[in-house]
Amino acid sequence: MRDKLYLTGFLLTAGLLLYVGRGLLERSALVASVLVFIGTTAAGVLGLALYQVQNRLRASRRELAQREAELSFAREVQVALFPPRFPKDSGLEFSAVCVPAAGISGDYYDILQLSDGRLAFAVADVSGKGIPAAILMSNLHASLHILVDAGHSPADLCAQLNRHLSRFTEAYRFATLFYAEWNATERRLTYVNAGHAEPFLVGSNGSSRLATGGLPIGLFPDSEFRAATIVLAPGDLVVLYSDGITEAGVLEAEPFGEERLEAVVQTHRRRPLTEIEREVLEAVQRWSGKEPEDDMTLLLVRAT
């Protein structure tokens, strides 16, 4: 900005002097010399300013390319944290997608097949966006895997995860989490909802919400969590999502909302899970009419 002001001042002064002294050029060699000096100086300043602008553009391009490379690498690392494949012959089938709003996401989903026969799955939404949220998400991923391998019950697992995040993160950093374990023999799903957007169960007898649990993890170190158990019949569908889906369009007018999400799922509930997933994302896109304002995650779980 300063260079532009200097340049503008030089050019205006040179132009004004040329206009005022146009009749003196032929009569005074001194005036002519002064005007030539001013014009030459202005041209030099212009050339210097253009040179500086080009240098800054090149530096900006290098910095932008470096940031894009870093974001691309971070995205690759984050994608590697998501399950590369879904368990088979577990009594459940899965479909999942995570659409980041800022290149990398603070949303998280996981499906864990354990050696003792347990099957666990989770969806989380870390506060904030971008790299800070992604870093906390990777911390959550590692801690969850350690606690699941240690054999903790769902309620105790959430309590320990909450203490960990409360101790090692800033007060304004937290995460909502839905965690569930599946017992295929008894067809029981035991879950804890730690402040997450309430998943809903769609079955032959209608739909219900999975709300039992507690506060988001990381807010208060002594928070307590309760678990609930439901029995899944063949064909029952559990829909887990982050609020990036239900709040899509909120900045423009009305959010997409839970009712519209449930209506889309109900309409297509008997179709393959990947098709239901596609229908939901297309409905959200039609509603908001723009790129995601927040990270969007959808995890569909159907009892077989």
Short overview:
The protein has 304 residues and is α+β, with helices and mostly antiparallel strands. 46% of the residues lie in helices and 22% in strands. It folds into 2 domains: 2-73; 82-303, Phosphatase 2c, domain 1, CATH 3.60.40.10.
What does this entry look like structurally?
- By secondary structure, the protein is of the alpha+beta class.
- It has two domains: 2-73; 82-303, PPM-type phosphatase domain (Phosphatase 2c, domain 1, 4-Layer Sandwich), CATH 3.60.40.
- The chain is 46% helix and 22% strand.
- The strands form two sheets. Strands 2, 3, 4, 5, 8 and 9 form a six-stranded mixed β-sheet that branches. A five-stranded antiparallel β-sheet has the order 1-11-10-6-7.
- A hairpin with a 2-residue loop joins strand 6 and strand 7.
- Helix 1 (2-20) packs antiparallel against helix 2, helix 2 runs parallel beside helix 3 and helix 6 (257-268) packs antiparallel against helix 7.
- It is elongated.
